[in-house]
Amino acid sequence: MELNSITYSKARLRRRKFVNALMLSLCVVSALITIIPLIYIFFYTTGAGLSSLNLDFFTELPKPVGEEGGGMANAIVGTLILIGIGSVIGIPIGIMSGIYVAEYSKQLFANIIKFLTDVLTGIPSIIIGIFVYGIIVLPMKKFSALAGGVALGILMIPTITRITEEMFKLVPMSLREASLALGVSRWRTTVSIVLRTALSGIITGILLAIARAAGETAPLLFTAFGNSFWSSSLDEPISSIPVQIFNYAISPYEQWHNKAWAGAFILILLVFVINLIVRIITRQKYENTV
Amino acid sequence: MILKFNKSKSNQDVELKVKSRLPDIIFKNVTLIFAFIIIFLVLWIIYELYKDAEPSRDRFGWSFIFNEEWEPLKEKYGALTFIYGTVVSSIIALLISLPVSLGVAIFLSEIAHRYIKTTFSFLIEILAAIPSIIYGFWGIFVFATFMRNTVQPFLQSTLGFLPFFKGTNYGYGMLTAGIILAIMITPIITAISRDVLKVIPQSQREAAYALGATRWEAIKMALLNAKSGILGAVVLGLGRAIGETMAVTMVIGNRAQIKASILEPAYTMASVIANEFAEASGSLHISALIEVGLILFIVTFIINSFARLLIFSATRKYDVK
Amino acid sequence: MKYLVIFLAAFSLIFASCGKKGGTGTNEVSLNGAGASFPFPIYSKWFGEYQKINKEIKINYQSIGSGGGIKQLTEGTVDFGGTDSPMKTEELSAAESKNQSKVIHIPTVIGAVVITYNLPGVEKDLNFTSDIIAEIYLGKIKKWNDNKIKSINSDAELPDKDIVPVHRTDGSGTTYVFTDYLSKTNEEWKTGPGVGKEVKFPVGQGAKGNEGVTGQVKNLEYSLGYVELVYALQNNLKYANIKNENGDFVKPTLESVTKAAEVMADQMPENLTLSITNAKGPGAYPISSYTYIIFFENQKDEAKGKALKNFLKWALTEGGKYALELGYSPLPKSVVEKSIEKLEIMNFNGKPL
Q1: What is the extent of the structural domain holding A217?
Q2: Quick one: which of C334, C348, C347 has its CA closest to C272?
């Protein structure tokens, strides 16, 4: 009898060990699979665009076909401005509403807001563009950087809200309790203790939101429009990298196709740099939570 | 200051009843206002869509959802083929992406050494930064050809007896779009799942090891604990898949049809809007497109509820308290 | 937290300062236009060249599609639009009533739709007729070595393979011109799929944009598609000679396209819009079409109106040479003259500009 149970548990142990090894190696395999398309796309983009990448690209305005030089300077600045406006709208709304749902609301209300946020994520960006066109561009009778920024901001909100809420929920209750026990007021607890702890994760969310917003073409076509020149104010059309890429890519000319790939490379680089800067800044202060 | 606990079901439901002072009340209401902005925004968008879809709604009523015909010249519009395309392509994307993303997230948070972890994390974030149109162009120039010449013939020769893999092999179709979507949503699900897993306290895993668990079993525990966060990641990824426009439009073949085979071309709601909106003439055409947008909204509602239900019921038996 | 705030502050500083960048010069006039993507390259060349002579005039154009161009002109968000097909009656009445002014169409360049194909092993340019093309896209002619194709291409070694027709999935002027031609020449097409910026193609694969069709045909053997001439030229694609009403098999070239406009120039009506598909005349390529710039007769801003008028005058007289370089066919002389005349009715508050 005893012999049987020992062999049984030995067999079971072997099986569990096998499953363990299998699953762990699958995880490593997944990581490798994911990297493959990344490297492929990255090298493809770089290879196709590198020939067009020179100093002109970063400093000059776009030039017509057949002319030497010409660049995306206004598009790069345009994208930064549009992300900036989008962030000013998206980050506060996202974080604050995420805090509300995580810290203060009752169950039902929280679920309603979460649900609506999820739905907001799924709206195609072109519809958001059409929406902002209707509420800003038409009344103003002009395309503007402002409209474009608002469209991007709306795109950013749901990601940031969701992540803020999830990260807040993961902060252990004991942290809040300790802070309150020490006499810190509720709101101060939320901001200085909980928010700080969750910050690294929230930053991930913000960076993901920025990455998405930076690469969107469709919503900008009907709001920020596009500009071959520098914009002199926020209520004028403004250029942006994805729109410029789009214009180059749908043309017949190989020269412009190369510029499109170069633009793509720059966009990826831009988002990467933003990621890097923000991570470095926050890592310095919050070493242990990274 | 009085501290009262109402311990209900889980850790998260502990209510802190703290006697509030003015700054607390102000702060709470400020966050409430922001939360309201979201509700307001969503309702406003629904309202605008509903309003602009009026000519189409009046004309077709409920049959719009069930009609397969979409012919601008004959002024006949029906959204069924697009609904099918969106739902199926998103499901394919999720089925492929979820296990892979979780695998990578586990790799990053549990297995990898520090330097590999940092490099890999950055690489994943770059994947998220690649603009949608680039995925589209890469899809046209590279991936679709690969699917047509390599992958799909292989699938047809091995699994061709299934209705899912019959039919002509163009390279542009539901499966190709689904895979590209999967690549696009993986970084989102991975990054968030990784962050969520990181925060699960080490003591959890240590307790599991103390009881004799293998590495994988300890990870399983952590996963179940993180299920809410992972669900959040999935929902965000899913949302992105449903609403993704440019990349899908370029590789899905854009044929309004419902076929069992996933090798066949299809058409999604976002794609038809992107393809036809700029050139749409006539208020009926435009309002039909907007109505498709409205239905997309509703489909997102439904898919989201379904996803939540599915994940919660599947993990309910493993609920760790 | 502090750093985030600093970061955001830095951002706001950036765009506050960008608000001051550039700044409006004293005489600077900015025009915004939107519309068809087909002529975007030549327009951008024109805007650039014009700006060299007139530094204060900045013209900005965005490719959002002909339909988009018409809509934005109607809504008043742009100063002019670009469209491949003339505005329809309903569109005209909507625009004119909303803006209290008639709409003027000015033709700018001529484009052509070519039948491009990927046929490995066949070096010679193939000949097609409109009936053959229609039947391919209707699914009635299925193979490359079909007798109908063989009969007019006796010296080509046509393989026994299926033809894969490629068509556009997005609404486009190119599809409009293509289907317009097929409807004029083939009864079954006319009663079937018909004419339009998008139609229901019974068979074939769909691709997005001229560049999408180009890409598919390039990568898919035995496929066939319709694209604007400039795309075929720039991408070294093979394209077919089409039999025109005169009985000649005409090769699509920049010259044969202008020829099509020339042989029909005396039919140009007062409103300067004309369909020139199926033009009858020696050497005229039958699938050609004008593209137009549209704007209002009564301009709302004097400086902008003047700038637009002077630019168009320049484009009509000087622009033709740049068109050829870039792969667009210039207008025939008589059309240029009529268009310049038309510009004279542009006015501001009743005063001519």
Answers
A1: 75-241
A2: C334
Chain A: closest CA distance from residue B24 (Å): 5
Q: Which of A205, A195, A186 is nearest to A168 (CA)?
A: A195
The answer to whether B304 contacts A118, with C-beta atoms less than 8 Å apart, is yes
What B106-109 contacts at long range (C-beta under 8 Å, 24+ apart), as own/partner pairs, is: B106/A27, B106/B197, B106/B219, B106/B223, B107/A27, B107/A28, B107/A30, B107/A31, B108/A31, B108/B190, B108/B194, B109/B194, B109/B197, B109/B198
Partners for C (CB, 8 Å, 3+ pairs)? Answer: A, B
Looking at the domain assignment, is residue A93 inside a domain?
Answer: yes
Please report residues of A whose CB lies closer than 8 A to that of B87: none
- Inform me whether the pLDDT recorded for C13 exceeds 70: no
Residue A278 within any structural domain of the chain: no
The CA-based angle C22-C23-C28, given to 5 degrees, is: 100
CB contact under 8 A, C216 and B265: no
Closest chain B C-alpha to A280 CA, distance in angstroms: 12
Of A237, A247, A281, the CB nearest to C40: A247
pTM beyond 0.95: the answer is no
Q: Which residue has the tokens 């890469």?
A: B138
| Arithmetic mean of pLDDT, C164-171 | 88
CATH entry, B59-319, from 1.10.10.10, 3.90.70.10, 1.10.3720.10, 3.30.110.70 = 1.10.3720.10
- Please indicate whether, in this complex, the C-beta atoms of C194 and B73 are within 8 angstroms of each other: yes
Residue A58 lies in a domain: no
Packing angle, helices A145-170 and A73-99, rounded to 10: 40
> Domains in chain A: how many in total?
1
Q: Do C47 and A228 touch (CB under 8 A)?
A: yes
Is A45 in contact with B274 (Cβ distance < 8 A)?
no
Written as six digits, the tokens of B69 are 């015909």
**Percent of chain B scored above 70 by pLDDT?**
89
**Inter-chain contact B104–A31, Cβ cutoff 8 Å?**
yes
Give yes or no for B170 touching C (CB within 8 A): yes
Residues 301-320 of B with CB under 8 A from C: none
- Is position A194 within any domain? yes
Q: Where are any strands of DSSP class E within A143-226?
A: none
- What is the residue-averaged pLDDT of chain B? 81
Q: What is the CATH number of the domain that holds A140?
A: 1.10.3720.10
